[in-house]
Amino acid sequence: MDFFLDSTDLEEIKRLNNLGIIDGLTTNPSLIYKAKTPFEKLIKNICSEIKGPVSVETVAESSSKMINQGVRLSKMAKNIVVKLPMTWEGIKACVELSKININTNVTLCFSTSQAILAAKAGATYVSPFIGRLDDANLDGVQLIREIKQIYSNFNYETKILAASIRTKNHVSQSAIAGADVATIPPKVFDTLVNHNLTDQGLDIFNSDWNKSGQKIL
Ligand code: E4P
């Protein structure tokens, strides 16, 4: 499974990218708003830190405007993935951008029928929002399972990018359900390593080692 960061916080991005296991990143207009940095500068800084795919969203209603924005965004850095909303206009824009080999991510996916549309439009990624489905008392991970089944029935190449992740359980359940990518907010990312039995085990190993009087060269 690929790990993307879901963030526009450059300090956090750098801190976590230092681990060496971050494969890409996603942004959205709300995260851009939070960053309070000029848009182009922010995206260029993120793209020089993160070498893998970086999703940046269009903010137009018509497919023609989305296509123009998508082409402009794709020129900002070579690893840009153009994010498009799950609307008919977004689907049309996805078809056109795919034809000219611009990578796309169809976002705000909440159903299997929407995921089929993204695949048929040639999207590089589809983003099911599992946390927002759970918030609405629905089952986000079940949606990932169903999309995975459909995509493998038809050999669709669109990658499933589990988004709106709220917990480390969302990450592991998405992996079990077959998501290709999980995009994870830094706060959730930090929790992935935690387990109380690891902490307890480490305390015991350290204390026994200290009592042993041994040395490693
Ligand atoms: C994904 O690309 C989105 O930016 C994101 O995961 C949305 O998450 P939220 O539901 O926590 O806003």
Briefly characterize the structure.
The chain is an alpha/beta fold. It is about 55% helix and about 15% strand.
Q: What is the molecular shape?
A: globular
Please name the CATH topology: TIM Barrel
Largest sheet: 8 strands, parallel, barrel
The number of distinct β-strands equals 8
Cofactors and ligands: erythose-4-phosphate
CATH architecture: Alpha-Beta Barrel
What Rg do the Cα atoms give? Answer: 20 Å
**Poorly predicted ranges:** none
> How many domains comprise the coordinates?
1
Which structural class do you get from the secondary structure elements? Answer: alpha/beta
Distance between the termini: 37 Å
Q: What is the helix content?
A: 40-55%
Characterize the structure shown.
It contains 11 helices and 8 strands. The protein has 217 residues and is an alpha/beta fold. The protein has one domain: Alpha-Beta Barrel (TIM Barrel). Strands 1-2-3-4-5-6-7-8 form an 8-stranded parallel beta barrel, surrounded by 6 helices. α4 crosses α5. The radius of gyration is 20 Å and the shape is globular. The mean pLDDT is 98. The site of erythose-4-phosphate (E4P) has 11 residues, from α7.
